[in-house]
Amino acid sequence: MTDISGELGGMTLTPAGNPHQLIGDAQVSSGLTFTSQAGVVIKPTGYFKITVNGIVLLDGTEFSSPQADPVPGDWYGIEIETWDPLGHIEDCTIRHATWGLHIKEGS
Amino acid sequence: MTVGQIQRNYIQQNSVGIGFYGYSGWSGWSGWSGAGGAGLAAGNVLWQNSKLLFFDVNGFYTYGYIGAGGSTAWDFQPICDNTKSPNGVGYSSSALDAITGYTTKMKINAVLRGVVAQSGDFFAMRIVKYIMTSSNSVYGTPVAGTDCSGVWTETNADMQGDIIVEGAPVAVPGDGYYFVDVWDYHVYNRGLVPHAIFLDFVKVKD
Fold first, then answer.
1. Which residues in A lie closer than 8 A to residue B40 (C-beta atoms)?
2. Mean pLDDT for each 10-residue chunk of chain A (107 residues)?
3. What is the pLDDT of residues B109-160, one digit of tens each?
4. Cβ neighbours around A14 below 10 Å, total
5. What is residue A15's three-state secondary structure?
């Protein structure tokens, strides 16, 4: 089990660290890269948000609530404030958020 | 965003599957048109979300609005390439390369797939527009012409539910939010079937 929060830029998550608990709001700042490999599981433990302004390389990553009886809105979701064209989100599962993907203008 | 940068994701059991927020009019969607739109639509599955899509086109927060300066001429092009479904049945559409210059209006084409329809199945889908008033109250009204309902009359174990809602929310200044909402897919004697929605965004150019 691995706890994550805050700046995710510069991090590479692998399945070996599963489950990754998102224990606070997190962000990927402009100019930084956040990588999550296929098979990674991220469990937000509260109503937390991942804000993206940098590069995200998300492959086959699952974002889902750790609650025994999960419901929509258990966590905020992924907010893309600025989309870096070098990034991608592919084959991921996003569940139990208020917003699965929250795309802001200019992304 | 460009085509394929956000693709083949399952977006499931959220309050809103995908929300587009803060777009100050279609000019703001120029980066979205043929880019983000297609990128998002490419093979993503929205499934069991309370609301599938959310478009902020009000300007309430953004001080912009949709429709300014746009003509009413429509030209539709599908920009989605859905490649998988919850039951593993995929399909693809084409014309991904035919996207140019869509800036002003949009059409939503939601297809309910992944359901093995049987005779007697009832379905109902529609696009709902929500208006935010000055008092911040919100009310929703179906967009005219987008209601789609009926009873399946065929029995074919191999047949996918293929229910198309072609919403044409011609957004105008002051419009509120648009949701694509499956408000019922009811299967008599078989309970409720999970909603599996595959999106064909059809953008409209000037």
1. 101, 103
2. 97 98 98 97 98 95 95 93 86 91 68
3. 444 444 455 565 555 545 554 444 444 444 455 555 555 555 544 443 333 3
4. 14
5. helix
**Per-residue pLDDT at A84:** 85
What ranges make up the beta strands (E) of A41-87?
41-44, 49-52, 55-59, 62-63, 75-80
Chain A residue nearest residue B83, CA to CA: A91
pLDDT tens-digit readout, B50-97: 555 555 443 322 222 222 222 222 222 222 222 222 222 222 222 222
Q: Which residues of A touch B11 (CB under 8 A)?
A: 93-95, 100-101
Helix (H) or strand (E) holding B41, with range, is helix B37-41
Place of tokens 């000019």: B27
Which tokens hold the place of A69? 């009886």
Nearest to A101 among B15, B18, B32 (CB): B18
Which residues in chain B have their CB less than 8 angstroms from residue A73's CB? 14-15
Chain A residues with CB-CB distance to B2 below 8 A: 85
Closest residue in A to B45 (Cα) is A93
Q: Where are the domains positioned within chain B?
A: 10-204
Domain, as residue range, for A83: 2-103
State the total domains in chain A.
1
Please, which residues have CB within 8 angstroms of residue B195's CB and are 6 or more apart in sequence? B47, B48, B49, B52, B112, B182, B185
Nearest residue, CB atoms, A90 vs list B2, B8, B13: B8
Cβ neighbors of A69 (< 8 A, separation 6 or more) are none
Find, in chain B, the residue whose alpha carbon is nearest to that of A86. Answer: B5
